[in-house]
Amino acid sequence: MKISTFSLVLLCFFQSARAILDPVDFLALQSIRRSLHDVPGSNFFSSWDFTGDPCNFAGVYCVADKVFALNLGETRAGSPGLTGKIDTAIGKLSSLADLTVSPGRIYGHLPQSISQLKNLKFLGISRNFISGEIPAGLGQLHNLRTIDLSYNQLSGTIPPSIGKLPALNNLILRHNRLTGSVPSFASAQNLNRLDLKHNSLTGSLARDSLPSSLQYLSLSWNQLTGNVDRVLYRLNRLNYLDLSLNRFTGPIPAQLFSFPLTNLQLERNQLCGPVEPFNEVTIQTVDLSYNKLSGEISPLLASVQNLYLNNNGFTGEVPGSFVERLLAANMQILYLQHNYLTGIVINPTAEIPLSSSLCLQYNCMVPPVQMTCPSKAGYQKIRPARECNQHH
């Protein structure tokens, strides 16, 4: 009986006594603390008193005697975050799986020593002032699933090694100053989200350089070129696609309209040719404006809720199915201004529902109904006759 009571006491003792933090991790946290400071209004570091157990510090999460996750900065909405630099000692936290830095004013380079964190799965340092290049060594961290370095001031190229990470699910580098080409992600077969929006990337994407696992792709606000057909034909799991504000060329592949998309943004490129979906298009928002598209408008686009076809070279009449959907308030935005359209069958007394916007300005016809056009459509209602005659 005495033995079992003793065992019970021993068990309780071990459960209540947690292992003391590994000295290497302890010293690393001290270095990290010395190089970072609370922005006025933040009190994140108030609990970081090294006479106590660092596993009780704000943002420090331990497993056994090692730091497993580090969340630097206050996570409360509207908190001003931290300032300073990320110390190279971060690379000494050998068990670290999750490194998050809240939005704030952290500046300087990403330390190369992050490449030593072999267990790292999540790297999230967005909305700060991080500059310099993305460490190429991140491509050696084979457990990495998410890299979010968005809204910083990173420059240089995207290291090709990152495109080969086998476990990578999410790569979010939007709103930086990255240059060069988009590397191949062909071997990143688990990649769901690729967001490189608002950088200065150039060149064309190699055929088959994007994996068919992609569900979210944003490359907008870059200077990318090449034929869009080559890039997209295999990506049939996409539910969000934004290639706007680039210099992509060629026709829009018909099968793209059959992908499970909710949003298709191809505006402000140099896409040309007719738009000919195979089936009725069920995408909620389709923006093909400011391109060089031509031919008649397909009636199969009538089921789109927000349709932007303005500033192209479309000809012929507006399909009757568009009018029906618009009057039934099923179509919310139909922008057809600045084309070469010659007619629309609609009763002049028909009232467009308040929830819907129709713009027909600057075509080869007199708009028959009241319109709600954006201000940048200009004031000219009708295209000059000579332009209409030349176009036909």
Give me some keywords for this one.
392 residues; Leucine-rich repeat, LRR (right-handed beta-alpha superhelix); 12% helix; disordered N terminus; leucine-rich repeat; repeat; Leucine-rich repeat-containing N-terminal plant-type domain-containing protein
Helix content: 10-25%
CATH architecture assignment of the domain at 261-392: Alpha-Beta Horseshoe
Shape: elongated
What portion of the residues fall into strands of 2 or more residues? 25-35%
- Mean pLDDT rating: 93
The CATH class assignment of the domain at 261-392 is: Alpha Beta
Give the total of beta strands. 27
Determine the CATH superfamily of the domain at 261-392: Ribonuclease Inhibitor
Gyration radius over CA: 28 Å
- Which class best fits the helix and strand makeup? alpha/beta
Domain Leucine-rich repeat-containing N-terminal plant-type: 25-62
Keywords: Cell wall, Disulfide bond, Leucine-rich repeat, Membrane, Plant defense, Repeat, Secreted, Signal
Organism: Trifolium subterraneum (Subterranean clover)
Subcellular location: Membrane; Secreted, Cell wall
Describe this structure in words.
The protein has 392 residues and is of the alpha/beta class. It has a domain at 261-392: Leucine-rich repeat, LRR (right-handed beta-alpha superhelix), CATH 3.80.10.10. Helix content is 12%, strand content 26%. The chain has 5 helices and 27 strands. Strands 2-3-5-7-9-11-13-15-17-19-21-23-25-27 form a 14-stranded mixed β-sheet, with no helix packed on it. Strands 14-16-18-20-22-24-26 form a 7-stranded parallel β-sheet. Strand 2 (60-63) and strand 3 (66-72) form a beta hairpin. The N and C termini lie far apart (102 Å). Mean pLDDT is 93; it is low at 1-17.
